[in-house]
Write a structure and sequence with these properties.
single chain, 16 strands, mainly beta, four-stranded antiparallel beta sheet, 279 residues, four-stranded mixed beta sheet
């Protein structure tokens, strides 16, 4: 038996991770981008084997051609979880990547995967003991309540405004307006406002007459609503339906001037209703 080798140059790799736990998502996903061919490898990475405009990169192995500047080709991908554990989303990245081995530590290196964070859907099953916010996002003053799709939720610790978690409301059929936000790292106990050092989670920035230790963490819930997002309202998954880009939403200020607050307890679920004023 004769073995033949067929060497190929790859253009990069995309790794899908959970937005809050940062763990790699190993289950199969639908991934597509115009003019791009992805192949999932055994590590769960989606390797970019071909991209329109970079055909000359595939056959040159001593080094990539210098005809196309690094990062000059913009790629927009769409990813859909067929099991509905994670919400669909859009994401952008650029090609070609830097193939210089000495630059392997740089963000745009060919030897580093492109991380794309996915948001849990309402059908996502959280791990036992996880702290979870079950949010319903509605239009303010609507009667009956109008549930809002594709709303980004930011969870900030009240004591120092540190970002703890991100979530997004669903837009597909019956779960429309529902969001599952998993908040990692909520301590079982933390300092209260009676500790004398001014670091309590009561949000007043100073010591008080309360208990030294508390079991609740005060958080702020910010929402970002994009009225331009007009999803298709149906229960079935269609990879061609429009989906949001959470990265672009994260650059926008909160839609609600005065955000809601909540108290989280480690290992418990908290149902909340968030109201968003309509433009």
């Amino acid at each position: 038996m004769k073995l033949e080798q067929t060497p190929r140059r790859v253009l990069g790799a995309v790794r899908f991770i959970d937005v809050n736990t940062k763990l790699r998502i190993a289950e199969p996903l639908w991934v597509q981008a115009a003019g791009v061919r992805f192949v999932q490898n055994r590590s769960g990475y989606y390797v970019v084997m071909r991209a329109k405009g970079l055909d000359d990169h595939r056959e040159l192995f001593d080094g990539p051609p210098d005809t196309t500047p690094l990062g000059s080709l913009d790629v927009e991908l769409k990813v859909v979880d067929p099991a509905w554990r994670y919400l669909p989303r859009r994401a952008r990245f650029t090609l070609p990547r830097d193939a210089e081995p000495d630059h392997a530590g740089k963000e745009d290196s060919l030897f580093r995967p492109i991380d794309v964070a996915l948001f849990p859907s309402p059908a996502h099953v959280a791990e036992t003991g996880a702290t979870v916010i079950r949010a319903t996002v509605i239009a303010q003053g609507s009667d009956p309540p109008v549930r809002l799709p594709g709303v980004l939720i930011r969870v900030l610790r009240a004591s120092d405004d540190k970002l703890l978690s991100l979530g997004m409301s669903d837009w597909r059929g019956r779960p429309r307006g529902e969001a599952t936000v998993i908040v990692p790292g909520i301590p079982v106990t933390t300092w209260g406002d009676g500790n004398g050092n001014g670091n309590g989670d009561n949000g007043n920035g100073g010591a008080g007459d309360g208990p030294v230790l508390v079991h609740e963490t005060l958080v702020i819930l910010e929402v970002v609503f994009d009225a331009a997002f007009q999803p298709v309202d149906r229960d079935l998954i269609d990879p061609n339906d429009p989906v949001p880009d959470p990265d672009s939403l994260q650059t926008k200020p909160p839609t609600v001037p005065t955000p809601a607050s909540a108290k989280l307890v480690s290992g418990r679920e908290l149902p909340v209703t968030l109201q968003v004023p309509m433009p």
